[in-house]
Specification:
299 residues, alpha/beta, Rossmann fold, eight-stranded mixed beta sheet, 9 helices, 8 strands, 40% helix, 16% strand
């Protein structure tokens, strides 16, 4: 068998090195950049107009549902404008106010059945498209951290314009649930909240989204994902872990799937304030959720 010359061996080594570098670049640069867009960007990111004012704040679905509705916008951080809708009770002054925050991958129209239950109970309702969804501006959402700042901006706007009423209850889903939990740590205007399937940690958000999208495992994939996500989105969001969980200071319903009730993050949050947090499964109707929250505000 003929032996390879030294020059041939060096050429093969060089080729293998280049191939290895290209594979690493593909795995740790090109691929995570592509996946962060698929995971965290709004679905219509490529068609998003440069001027967010061009995004429609269409309240037609609420009017057609029979609500007395009015649209408004809230500027959150100078770059993000939230498309919101205010719904008043039909025949009376509001007995309270409910802020409804949809899943970050949905829009506020999904809140119509829940809004109906609150309005029928005499509450005014405010709901809005989260950043990077529907009529709100923004190209990327987060795991609830930036959404918490958005919720604080909405509460402040309602207060400034004389639309605040108590008890103030907040219902959030997914990242909206995390926004409610994070905001309720210090926001004294919130009287009670329901957090439905919050992520609680950044890894949980990543794993949840990964279940619904194709993603190839590779070493340190969560770290690289978060790194490129912050670069691509221009955010500076910290990766939240279980040690950073803080208890809300308001009465809270924590709704999670039955198989998740023994999750370490869920248990730690509940045990941090057992007198305030009630752990419940994700079951029941909108009317039952509203009834439970109203009972919670009367305690």
């Amino acid at each position: 068998m003929a032996r390879l010359s030294r020059g041939t061996r060096e050429t093969i080594k060089t080729i293998l090195f280049i191939v290895a570098v290209l594979i690493l670049v593909l795995i740790y640069v090109v691929y995570p950049l592509n996946r962060t867009k698929a995971f965290m960007a709004r679905p219509d990111i490529d068609e998003l107009p440069a001027d967010s004012i061009l995004l429609a704040n269409d309240i037609t679905p609420f009017v057609e549902a029979g609500f007395k509705a009015d649209s408004f916008r809230v500027e959150s951080d100078g770059l993000t404008k939230l498309a919101a809708v205010m719904i008043a009770p039909l025949d009376s002054l509001p007995r309270g106010l409910a802020i409804l925050i949809p899943d970050e991958r949905q829009n506020r129209n999904q809140m119509i059945p829940l809004a109906r239950a609150f309005v029928d109970s005499g509450f005014a309702v405010a709901t809005y498209d989260q950043r990077a969804s529907g009529g709100s501006s923004g190209r990327y959402h987060s795991d609830g951290q930036y959404e918490a700042a958005d919720l604080q901006a909405v509460i402040a706007d309602l207060e400034i314009h004389g639309r605040m009423a108590h008890p103030l209850v907040v219902v959030g889903y997914s990242a909206g649930a995390d926004a409610a939990l994070l905001t309720a740590i210090e926001e004294k205007r919130i009287d009670a909240l329901a957090a439905v399937e919050p992520y609680l940690t950044s890894d949980r958000m990543f794993d949840k989204v990964k279940q619904t999208t194709s993603h190839i495992w590779y070493p340190f994939h969560r770290t690289m994902f978060w790194w490129w996500y912050n670069i691509r989105s221009s955010y500076a969001a910290e990766c939240r872990d279980i040690d950073q969980l803080r208890a809300p200071t308001r009465k809270t319903f924590l709704h999670v799937a039955p198989e998740r009730q023994d999750d370490p993050a869920v248990r730690k949050l509940v045990e941090s304030a057992p007198e305030l947090i009630s752990l419940r499964p994700v079951t029941g109707t909108e009317q039952e959720l509203v009834g439970s929250l109203l009972e919670l505000t009367r305690r």
